Amino acid sequence: MEKKMVKIIIAIECMVLSIMIFQISLPKKECEENKYKLVTYVYKKQVELAASNPRIIDEEIYERKKVYELSDIDYQNLLRIVEAEASGEGENGKLLVANVIFNRVKSRKFPNSVTAVIFQQNQFAPTRDGRFYSVKVTQETVRAVDRALYGEDISNGALYFVAVSKASQDKVGWFQTKLTKVCSYGGHEFYK
Predict the structure, then answer these.
(1) DSSP structure class, residue 70
(2) Could you give the CA distance from residue 136 to residue 131 in angstroms, rounded to a whole number?
């Protein structure tokens, strides 16, 4: 009987809370203060009710660990090349560029550090045309690069990419005939 009474009281308090939230006559600040006090009170009652019937809850804790540890120089260079290559491509477009860099670092065909991959001769246009040095890195780029650092790879193993609308037909033709296309995103095609 007592538990039923507590549930009824909580239901009434919730109705009062609903009325107070929609009450127009109170100034906004006063209404917000009252709402907070009432919500706190209802919450405490619900906790007391739940606590009277102890339960065992299974809990799993997931810990994210970085897959790649980079020096500060490698990290800054990675941010810059991703921003320069994929500005306007959205977070996943930027993630794909970071994936290509990491896939190259892991491959025996390319240098074994992020900075060496970025500055390998004739590989990334922004290192030649100056964009690499003048970009302003956005928070979206930081998020994309951090996702890659924690091992998120949506590139299907891509080692190359080309901006089809910006590259010459000869260059695009080389990608299409010599490599295997694995995906497209935004203005880029990705190959391995």
Answers:
(1) -
(2) 10
Backbone angles phi, psi at 70, to 5 degrees: -115, 150
CB 188 within 8 A of CB 89: yes
Q: Give 20-52 pLDDT, tens digit per residue.
A: 444 444 443 433 343 334 444 444 444 455 555
If you count DSSP H runs as helices and E runs as strands, how many of each does the chain have, helices first? 9, 3
Cβ neighbours of 112 (radius 10 Å): 11
Q: Are 21 and 35 in contact (CB under 8 A)?
A: yes
Q: How far apart are CA 1 and CA 144, in angstroms?
A: 56
Per-residue pLDDT, 61: 64
The average confidence (pLDDT) of the chain is 79
Q: What percent of the chain has pLDDT over 70?
A: 67
CA distances to 1, 23, 53 from 41, rounded to whole Å, are 22, 19, 19
What single-letter amino acid sits at 85?
Answer: E
CA dihedral 167, 171, 173, 174 (to 10 degrees): -150
Which tens digit of pLDDT belongs to each residue from 95-125?
999 999 999 999 999 999 999 999 999 999 9
Residues contacting 105, CB < 8 A, separation 6+: 68, 111, 112, 113, 114, 117
**Could you give phi then psi for residue 155, rounded to 5 degrees?**
-95, -5
* 101: number of Cβ within 10 Å: 25
- What H or E segment, with its residue span, contains residue 163? strand 160-163
